[in-house]
Design brief:
Length: 325
């Protein structure tokens, strides 16, 4: 019989499998923590950037409200213009309040996850763009190779295969051989074969159970691999969506900048009003806000791909924050 199916080797192999699976579980937990902290960091950065935009919009709405009141006082508008300006100002104030609450919440969540002190953090530093440049096929291969779940299932499959081989050996006769030399110097060879008839049915049942378990673990591994492929496809498409969204947002920013410049020229020639200037400026700020949101969305999608391919080191050098003096 194969010595590896006997003690102590059988128990040693089982212990090694348990240790390997425990390490894989630890690695999976670490990746989960890293992903969660990274997502919280980006949420906090985005909330901070959104607050900055909301403050700029509020300042613009306050100036616009002042201009509307002046126009109405000169008889160039009516109560409806005042009401519209008040609603826009109230909406801008609400946007600032909502953004402040979001900043506080995301920072509290980040502090809880990392144990850092809120009092020592003055401003989160937006990271540089994080991009993913591998093709879908290469990405899928990397994710499948790095998957801790698939590695654990592979260990289970190997263990089931060993158990099946052991059960199969137990259904066969046990053959032992011996060699010796008698007093005359002649070699004596002995062969002993043993078949445990009363154990035959139990051995056959163990073999059948081992075969079923091997088939089940193989099927679980195949199903998990297919699920992992679909997850890769979703993550990869999320990144492509974010990348195209960012390209569109950049075009919108360019258009808003051109419109603002054209409005400024018209205003210099007294061909438009301050309100049109405010409108063009607000459109530019809104376009920049969408650009920032698209950038963060793409970066998060890239980070998820890096973590699922066990390339965390490509993410963390891009994350830092300023500390108060």
């Amino acid at each position: 019989r194969d010595p590896k199916t006997m003690e102590p080797w059988w128990s040693i192999q089982a212990a090694e499998d348990a240790y390997a699976k425990a390490r894989l579980a630890r690695d999976a937990a670490a990746r989960g923590v890293i992903l969660r902290v990274t997502e919280l960091f980006f949420e906090a950065v985005k909330a901070q950037e959104d607050l900055n935009v909301a403050l700029e919009i509020l300042e613009s709405m306050q100036e616009q409200n002042r201009l509307v009141r002046e126009r109405v006082s000169r008889g160039m508008g009516g109560p409806l213009d005042l009401r519209t300006a008040e609603i826009e100002l109230a909406a801008a104030q609400y946007g600032v309040s909502q953004s402040r609450r979001r900043v506080d919440l995301t920072r509290q969540q980040l502090m809880q996850a990392t144990g850092l002190s809120l009092s020592r953090m003055s401003r989160l530093v937006p990271p540089p763009p994080i991009t993913w440049d591998a093709a879908l096929e290469a990405t899928t291969t990397k994710v499948l190779e790095a998957s801790t779940d698939l590695k654990a299932l592979e260990i289970d499959k190997d263990a089931a295969r060993r158990a099946w081989r052991k059960a199969k050996q137990e259904t066969q006769p046990e053959v032992n051989s011996s060699f010796s030399i008698n007093e005359s110097g002649e070699w004596r060879v002995g062969v002993e074969a043993a078949w445990y008839f009363w154990d035959g049915q139990e051995a056959a049942e163990r073999l059948e159970a081992a075969a079923v378990k091997l088939q089940r673990t193989a099927a679980e591994l195949e199903a998990a691999a297919e699920t992992a492929r679909l997850d890769v496809l979703r993550l990869y498409y999320d990144y492509l969506d974010g990348d195209e969204r960012l390209q569109l947002a950049e075009l919108e920013v360019e258009r808003a900048m051109e419109m603002l410049e054209m409005t400024r020229r018209r205003y210099g020639l007294r061909m438009t009003t301050e309100l049109e200037m405010m409108k063009a400026l607000n459109e530019l700020r809104a376009a920049k806000a969408e650009q920032a949101a698209a950038l963060y969305s793409r970066s998060l999608a890239a980070i998820r791909l890096f973590i699922h391919t066990d390339q965390v080191i490509r993410v963390f050098p891009n994350i830092s924050w300023d500390h108060g003096e």
